[in-house]
Amino acid sequence: MRIPVGVKLLALLLGSTLFYTWVGSLVPQKEVRPPEVVELAEDMSTDDLVNIGQEIFVGKGLCSTCHTIGSSGALRFPDLGGIANTAAEREPGVDALTYLAQSIYRPNEFIVPGFNPGMPAIDKPPIGLSDDEILAVIAYLQTLGGTATMEVGMQLPYAGGVEPSEMQAAAGGGEDAGEPYTPGAVDSAEPGGGAAAGSSPLLARYGCNECHDNPDAPGRASSLAGVGSRLGRGEIQRWLTDHDPPLPASYTSEITLAQVRDLTDYLSALKEQG
Amino acid sequence: MRFEMPKKLTAGMVIGLLVVAAVGLLLLVEGAQWMDSSLGYRGPLEAGPDTELETPRDRQLAREEAEAAEEAMGRELVEPEYREVPYVGSRTAIWVIAQLKLLFAAFVLAVPMFVLIIEFMGYRSGDKRYDRLAYEFTSLLSPAFAMTAGFGGVMTFMLIVLYPKFTSYLLGVFSPTLLPYFILLFAEAALFYTYYLTWGKIGPKKHLFLGLMLNLVGTALMFIANAWLTFMTSPAGISEKGAVISVWDAVNNYTWMPINIHRLIANVAFGGSIAAAYAAYQFLTAKTPAERAHYDWMGYIGNFVAVIGLLPLPFAGYWLASEIYAFNQTMGITMMGGAFSWLFIIQAILIGNLFLGINYYLWLGMGRVEGKKAGKPLIPVLLGVITLCFIVWATPRSPISTPEEMAAMGGSSHPVLQFLGVMSAKNTAVNLIILATFVSFLLYRRTGKRPTARWAKTGNLAQTAILLLGASIVLFFGIYGYFVEARVRIFFSIPMVLTVLFVMLIVTFIDVLLLRNSKETGETRWGNMPPRAQYVLIFLAVTFTWLMGLMGYVRSGLRQHWHVYGVIRDTSAGAYTPTLGYATKVVSVTVLIFFVLIGFIFWLASLAHKKKLHTKELVAETEATYEAEAAAAASSGGMLPEGAQRSRTDLDGGHDGEGGGR
Lengths: 274, 662
Prior knowledge:
By secondary structure, chain A is mainly α. Chain A is built from 12 helices and no strands. Chain B has a domain at 78-345 and 534-624. Helices cover 72% and strands 1% of the residues of chain B. In chain B, helix 7 (204-233) packs across helix 9 (256-284) and helix 9 runs antiparallel to helix 10. The longest helix of chain B is centred in the first third of the chain and has 36 residues, at 90-125. Chain B is globular, with a radius of gyration of 34 Å. At the A-B interface, helix 1 of A face helix 12, helix 13, helix 18, helix 20 and helix 21 of B.
């Protein structure tokens, strides 16, 4: 029986497309969903942060697309095995935490010798991790050769545009100078140490009330009443470290990290009534 | 008194009867209504017609209806961000339509390029077969234009309806480009019809100029449309929030020019490939040896143009990929090492099939040339090289494996095969495949010819040495790439590509000089090709189209859940990146629809051209001569003598005889 040309052509067309469809079904099938924003609960432990950070590392953060852990040889991007230790030694005068934060927020400020620049800022789209998510990723990175020390609510260098130098300046270069600006470094001997409750003597000490809530002040500043409802914790902390207009030198040169944290706690607790 | 029926009905009587009947009918209806309202039975709960009957439920329903009407009247105008297509979803629906539009647009841009090349060859050589071939292809454009416009319209409406906010944003950014686009669109249509309808009626140079203008306008149109789509992938000229800073920067974004060049070259290859498929279809349905001869020649030319376009395509692809990396490393790595890495294994299989098919067709083509086939012993070697390179190219770095297999391998990568799954190996493979295909073409070109130049032996040796040296350089960089850092290795593709291009240019140059006054040891018998060669041409066209669909998917899919990468996020239900299995099914459906439609266009064209071919008395006479000569040639082991064939194709040269001027 002679098969018509049309039938043969149709068979060829169907056969070819079916073959390629079949090839497509042989390769790994992975559906990539848009990532969701991870929100950290206040009661999360450091271990929780590490687990979340690891998930972000291999998932939403796309870190594992380029970085390996424990590989050697001709790599395209630096291996992150033991990064908790190497981070402290990569840049002179830069501590491990600042280095890790810098690598994520400002990846092109320092390029590891032997590699090309190429890592995008992870807090910007398209990856666009939030400060909380970056905190969790750093907690995970700290476990690669070290121990995680991150806690929920900690302020990271570069987060919210705060430079490490500004944080150090805010810390007053006192006993906290050179340390990363974290609330973990609470000096309970300082006035106002401890949980925010009632009123804070720090407001009086640094003269905040001379402008805030003072009807007689020239060009008076906004009221601090209910500021905890209007601004988030991070925003309050940013105001305390990067105030506009700039605060007097008596504030910037004397206030310590612990005091900034206490003031943040205190102001965050000032919620709108009713 | 007896009433007698009138023997003839007059018009007045008829009208009178109709009036009486109408009045009677009216009275009947009115009477029935009166009887029903006044004399009809009324149940105990049924009130009279003037009494309004309302139950609490009726009142509630009426209230709700009034409230709904009031609410509807006061409703705010809220423009939805997305609308959904039932069953298949918006994304898949617009994907299929946009891909079909793109394939037809590629066709209407590719065919004029192919036609202009062919027409120019005909003008230069004086061989009227080229002119006829060019004209025959131009006739395919008219229905193809209609298809492109149709799908373009559907796609535009779908974008407006399904993605109103995003479409509005994109149109806003590129609003200054819309007017030039529409003007060019009209110019394209005007130029096409002028070009088509003035065939043979104006001087050849003027006609060629029209063809050139048609191509320039078509290319400009493509460049503008490319600006819109490449902006989505690699946006520029806007702020972080999407506000326009510079329209020119938005147009001239990272991937714009690489896509322009890639599509331009791909269109040449696509046009040639579709032309070859058309010729193959006509060959298979041809009734006479003369038709087969004509369409065999047409298939050869189409395939030749496709190969010319295909060879530089990987290099254009490298450029595009490097620009994607330059724009955003994450996107580049997602493409090559992340979610889309396996797509390039599918791509390797497609391109491998293309090269195998092209080479097979060239090897079969040696059969249509009489005399000694010096290149035949090399075919198994070339087949071996191409197959080996194909295997390397399609080797994944991390094969699909079970947890036990992964444990045995010590990771996700195979201890040996992982070395074939990296760019060093793949670059080497693709460059060697290109060189092998080039050699196949040289062998085909030389079949039936013997160089007569005094330096022929030296020339042959020089060609062989250059080819071997080129292959060695490619191999050297491929192997050396394993021993250097990534930042050095990434640039090795440049010397590899340049080596291959240089080798092809210099060897072709020597070959042209060598064969300038060559002696023909046998004639080319057009039509003397087995049917399987024609099926190969059609397979190549299907594969090429499928590859275009797949690459269209990766280009668009790279944005993942972004309409405009990093700026305008896709929050629709279809924002996810589907599995490769799903993507290949969509591509297959699109390709099938395209070929059904393009088959319809071919069929329409064949009605016109074959009829023309069969009604010419002159051709019929020549046919008789041709058959006699073919029979004589067949008895001596050959087919149609070249001279007889040429005389025939000259005689049925279509419009040339009608319009003159050529």
